[in-house]
Design goal:
This protein has helices spanning 11-26, 28-33, 39-56, 64-78, 83-106, and strands spanning 2-3, 8-9. The chain is mainly alpha-helical. Strands 1-2 form a two-stranded antiparallel sheet. Helix 1 packs antiparallel against helix 5 (83-106), helix 3 packs antiparallel against helix 4 (64-78) and helix 4 (64-78) packs antiparallel against helix 5 (83-106).
């Protein structure tokens, strides 16, 4: 069980969330390639979601991987960059999410726990 601001939730719920988060981050690449006019608002929404998650699951406030993920999203929202940098940052963000998931679930041996 993972403690949140309101109650404990099963580990599987948060592990599944991190799996879904990879897809949300991946979506940035095709949006960037298409010069999608909604890319910035999409990333801002993603950033709000991450901040909300950090406030809900307090241990994430102190996780260097999670803070780095927020920093990279902040950079992509407020900087001008080319497709190569976008691609690099997206892949680094995905790796950070995988590290977070491994840190909290796979290292403890409960990535597939069904609480």
């Amino acid at each position: 069980m993972i403690e949140t601001k309101y109650c404990a939730i099963p580990n599987l719920y948060l592990a599944n969330y991190f799996n879904m988060l990879v897809g949300k981050i991946w979506k940035i690449l095709p949006m960037g390639e298409e010069n999608n006019k909604h890319l910035k608002s999409y990333m801002e929404s993603l950033q709000r979601e991450l901040i909300g998650n950090m406030n809900l699951v307090e241990t994430l406030k102190y996780d260097s991987y999670f803070v780095t993920l927020l920093n990279k999203i902040e950079f992509m929202i407020n900087s001008v960059y080319n497709h190569e940098i976008c691609r690099k940052e997206v892949f680094e963000c995905i790796e950070l999410v995988k590290k977070i998931k491994a840190k909290y679930f796979e290292e403890r041996g409960d990535a597939c726990e069904h609480n």
